[in-house]
Amino acid sequence: MAGFFSLLRRLYLSLYNWTVLFGWCQVLYFVLKTLNESGHQYVYNAAEKPLLYAQTAAVLEILHGLVGLVRSPVTATLPQISSRLFLVWGILWSFPETRSHVLVTSLLISWSITEIIRYSFFGFKETFGFTPSWLLWLRYSSFLVLYPTGISSEVGLIYIALPFIKASEKYCIRMPNKLNSSFDYFYAAIVAMGIYVPGSPHLYTYMLAQRKKALSKSKRE
Amino acid sequence: MKVTVVSRSGREVVKGGVELSDSATIADLQEAIHKRTKKYPSRQRLTLPVQPGSKERPVVLNYKKSLKDYTSGNSETLTVVFKDLGPQVSYRTLFFCEYLGPLLLYPVFYYLPVYQYFGYKGERVIHPVQTYALYYWCFHYAKRILETFFVHRFSHATSPLSNVFRNCAYYWTFGSYIAYYVNHPLYTPVNDLQMKIGFAIGILCQISNFYCHIILKNLRSPGGEGGYQIPRGFLFNIVTCANYTTEIYQWLGFNIATQTVAGYIFLVVATFIMTNWALAKHRRLKKLFDGKEGRPRYPRRWVTLPPFL
């Protein structure tokens, strides 16, 4: 019975990883194609559909951690995926004025390359039980460049969206109301930006430690 | 007797060790370390060394026991592992600081014109529920402070200084967050019946909470000792941590009466924290009182949240 569940788990995770990988490959393809043909202003519109699907599918990763399908701690997964979803749905999808900015291109390229490497790494691991050494190296080295570019683009886009958030009053809840609460999306976005200040170095050092551990382990083997 | 004091890495903390009489206690050793290292006893955690790579937890030395209790056979030497716990404050200081914040901050939102700075220029109408909420809130935190000084007996004398900042941040932030909405000029009060039901539940639970603390106080001797005992009487006959139960339900009462999202968020967070504490205590008591070797068996009880847990 345990063997059957293990097989089912591997099947499901393989399917999940390869499907999401396909989504991110589409994102990268559309970004590069549009960038080459039309310019950075049209990048988001071209890649929107696969981007929304692929990034929203990452919610399942939190679920995988919660139910114990994968070993990765929810505390590490949750903030990363939340910030990504906030950007995709809360900024780019909600405020079309931000979509034509050049930072969208750098954001999508950083994200898609990172995710293509990551999902193919997990895909190999679940499907074949091993990962090629070059992929392992990429998985734990590409972030050195792609994290700073991705995070800078994220913060930049939130900053660019601020005047539009303030003007539109979108997602704001004002008093008086029965539940005696209010919510200002503008200040929430500022708080989100503020979280990046301690969050980014923390994440970067965490990944450096992971890199050291993973690469030294692969050397021993 | 010669005592060698080393750090967890094996480095000597007190050069040349400490010479003590054979009748010396761990407290005497701590005083001797204090003289040599300037680290006062409550900062020190002394344990027996464990084998490298061993998974077992080290034995923490009890300050009341004699050094002889920890030496093997007739050995005249003892090696202890010293860990500096960092700056410490008494639990009374910690609780006083964390409860004083909400007690002082809440009335600021009620009495002072703070809402002018948030862009509300008009005349503010104060609803009766806002006044009752102020009395309730201040009574609650005044009660907590008085209990800290006159009721509670602490098993640990001190707490790390960093906990003061963490706990104060938690209480002061939530205090201001709730006060802001309950005293807001655009606050929408609940109907009279709901308010009365809420405050009635709250007051009943506050009185019950005080009685629970008296019961817990009587389980310990004035010095804070007494180890673990099965709490009995009043709500403790049905709930392991009746003190947390009454605390949770009194906040529920407050929220029924005032109805703010901020208050309910605080309730959820506090419930989560207290439930974790209660589960840990419940497990500990069940493990300790297992009915074997003459020990009493822990009775079947709710953990902390009847009728749910």
UniProtKB/TrEMBL annotation, chain A:
Pathway: Lipid metabolism; fatty acid biosynthesis. It comes from the Eukaryota. It is found in: Endoplasmic reticulum membrane; Membrane. GO terms for biological process: fatty acid elongation; sphingolipid biosynthetic process; very long-chain fatty acid biosynthetic process. GO terms for cellular component: endoplasmic reticulum membrane. The chain crosses the membrane at residues 12-32, 101-122, 143-165, 185-209. It catalyses: a very-long-chain (3R)-3-hydroxyacyl-CoA = a very-long-chain (2E)-enoyl-CoA + H2O. The keyword Isomerase does not apply. It is an enzyme of class 4 (lyase). Its EC number is 4.2.1.134. It holds the Pfam family PTPLA. InterPro entries: Tyr_Pase-like_PTPLA. GO terms for molecular function: 3-hydroxyacyl-CoA dehydratase activity; very-long-chain (3R)-3-hydroxyacyl-CoA dehydratase activity. It is a multi-pass membrane protein. The keyword DNA-binding does not apply. Keywords: Endoplasmic reticulum, Fatty acid biosynthesis, Fatty acid metabolism, Lipid biosynthesis, Lipid metabolism, Lyase, Membrane, Transmembrane, Transmembrane helix. Belongs to the very long-chain fatty acids dehydratase HACD family. PANTHER family: VERY-LONG-CHAIN (3R)-3-HYDROXYACYL-COA DEHYDRATASE. Catalyzes the third of the four reactions of the long-chain fatty acids elongation cycle. This endoplasmic reticulum-bound enzymatic process, allows the addition of two carbons to the chain of long- and very long-chain fatty acids/VLCFAs per cycle. This enzyme catalyzes the dehydration of the 3-hydroxyacyl-CoA intermediate into trans-2,3-enoyl-CoA, within each cycle of fatty acid elongation. Thereby, it participates to the production of VLCFAs of different chain lengths that are involved in multiple biological processes as precursors of membrane lipids and lipid mediators. This is Very-long-chain (3R)-3-hydroxyacyl-CoA dehydratase. The lineage of its organism: Eukaryota, Viridiplantae, Streptophyta, Embryophyta, Tracheophyta. The gene is LOC100527150.
TrEMBL record, chain B:
Signal peptide: none annotated. One of its GO terms (cellular component) is endoplasmic reticulum. CDD domains: Ubl_TECR_like (cd01801). Residues 158-301 form the 3-oxo-5-alpha-steroid 4-dehydrogenase C-terminal domain. PROSITE patterns: S5A_REDUCTASE. Keywords: Lipid biosynthesis, Lipid metabolism, Membrane, NADP, Oxidoreductase, Transmembrane, Transmembrane helix. It is a multi-pass membrane protein. It holds the Pfam family Steroid_dh. The chain crosses the membrane at residues 261-279. It is found in: Endoplasmic reticulum membrane. GO terms for biological process: sphingolipid metabolic process; very long-chain fatty acid biosynthetic process. InterPro entries: 3-oxo-5_a-steroid_4-DH_C, SRD5A/TECR, Ubiquitin-like_domsf. Its main location: endoplasmic reticulum. One of its GO terms (molecular function) is very-long-chain enoyl-CoA reductase activity. Belongs to the steroid 5-alpha reductase family. PANTHER family: 3-OXO-5-ALPHA-STEROID 4-DEHYDROGENASE (PTHR10556), VERY-LONG-CHAIN ENOYL-COA REDUCTASE (PTHR10556:SF28). This is 3-oxo-5-alpha-steroid 4-dehydrogenase C-terminal domain-containing protein. It comes from Glycine max (Soybean). The gene is LOC100780327.
